[in-house]
Amino acid sequence: MSFSREIKAELCRSEPCCGFCAAAECYGILLYCNKFSAGEIKIVTETRALADRLPVVFERAFGVAFDSMPGDGERAGKHAFAINVPDKLDVLFETYGLARGGIVAHHINLGVLESECCRRGFIRGAFLAGGSITDPDKRYHLELVTGHYSVNGEMRALLLEQGFEPKALIRNGNYVVYFKHSGAIEDFLTLIGAPLAAMKLMSAKIEKSMRNSVNRLVNCDTANVSKTVEAAQQQIEAITKLSVSGALGDAPEKLRRAAELRIAHPELSIAQLGEMSVPPVSKSCFYHRIRKLLSLCDQTAPDKKDAPDNAPR
């Protein structure tokens, strides 16, 4: 089950607190459903929980039943509901202060949404019919899609009143308000009555943050190990050259012992080699001895000016 369906299933488990809230939820569903015209209302959903909820909430809000409901002839995964009897349509339109003649001017009648719970119910209905959310393990994106220009603008204004800052766009002839910030999505889900989904999103965000932190630490450790290995190889090569040339034997005893430790423990860091010294020395002290060895190696290297004319250049 997708994350969107999980949320809608959670929303459908709660009952509207009163008939007014049921009507407000239906209002959101109607303005974001497939068809809301003077001659017909049609709602199509792939969410089984919403399909079970629609007849109940419409009966509570208007006292009417759907004229057609999902049957054996429906496509798999699709649940279609319709109302086309004029008397039933009159009841719905009168509830929302709309005229059922000619072309319906779709807009949000805030007079129907005077109480805070009714506004939450309206937004919940809009999400049930026209909302979707991306799996938070992938990215953060929640949107509400409607085919009505005025509804989209008024919904954005309503969300602004609720303390949100949604963005808007037009996609394939439809109008969209959306959120991309995880905190805003969490607050939105809590507002419409899906606290469990909000907690799941927060958990996914924390897990993702921890995973990213671990990856950064691993990458950092890997880079540090690579640098340590590369430096150790350069130091061992220099000490080997000093040993072959005999210059290492003429070096002070402290440098010879530092060289022996470096050769014996190529995997250790400078700090660790300093601790193994007798007596132990600091990281900077041991590094100074290694630098002395590297400098001595450079001094004993053949002068490029003395190289034969046929030497590779």
Distance between the termini: 68 Å
- Order the strands across the largest sheet as they lie in space: 4-5-7-6
**Overall tally of structural domains:** 2
Number of helices in the DSSP assignment: 11
Number of strands: 7
Which structural category do the helix and sheet elements fall into? Answer: alpha+beta
- The CATH superfamily name of the largest domain is Homing endonucleases
Q: Report the average pLDDT across residues.
A: 86
Listing every helix as H and every strand as E from the N terminus to the C terminus, the arrangement reads HHEEHEHHEEHEEHHHHH
Shape: rod-shaped
Q: Give a short account of the largest sheet.
A: 4 strands, antiparallel
Report the C-alpha radius of gyration, rounded.
Answer: 36 Å
What share of residues is helical?
A: 55-70%
The share of residues in extended strands comes to: 5-15%
What is the CATH class designation of the largest domain?
A: Alpha Beta
CATH-derived topology of the largest domain: Endonuclease I-creI
CATH structural architecture of the largest domain: Roll
Uncertain parts? 304-313
